[in-house]
Amino acid sequence: CLTKWLVPKALGMVVRLLYAAPLHKECRKYKNDKEKVMKVEQKLREMGLELPELPKPNGLYAPSRRVGNLIYIAGQTPDIHGVRQVVGVVGEDLTIEDGQRSAQICALNILSVLKAELGDLDKVKQFVQIISYVRCAKGFGNQPLVIDGASRLFRDLYGEAGIAARLAIGANELPGGSATEILAVVEAEED
Q1: Is the pTM here over 0.85, yes or no?
Q2: Which of 1, 50, 100, 102 is deepest in the core (most CB within 10 A)?
Q3: pLDDT in tens for each of the 191 residues of the chain?
């Protein structure tokens, strides 16, 4: 008697789950598309930020390299128009907030490189990985907090797609005395 009642109920639940799964996926897709309505550069302007001019390499390397839909972006320092903005040692002559500002400028330079590569920042599908260096005092252990200055900007612009796997490590020196240097791997939308 129990099987006559249980089997149809279980089958009914399985059928409802099978039909609901694609609908649920569509709802998530709609939600993500809705979040992307505002253009990334418009969001930047509303935040009071602007993209710096494309940084010029300070050595023999490419600013970015595309492999399929992945874009590898060379290390970016906190430069605006070729002038280093944040120089010093976090935890010694710079505060964590100074380091976060440095990281945010590095992130803006990453976005400038992406715009040059893709032509449109809205073609970014997701940030895959961020590798970052903080020039810091001996014994300083808040590198992740410093690099949040970059991660927060990417998240504010791209939502969950802006939150990447990340490495934040300390260094005793960085190019030109920069407080931070960040490189990134980004996935672009299909062409």
Answers
A1: no
A2: 102
A3: 544 544 455 445 443 433 444 434 333 333 444 444 569 999 999 999 999 998 888 899 999 999 999 999 999 999 999 899 999 999 999 999 999 999 999 999 999 999 999 999 999 999 999 999 999 999 999 999 999 999 999 999 999 999 999 999 999 999 999 999 999 999 999 87
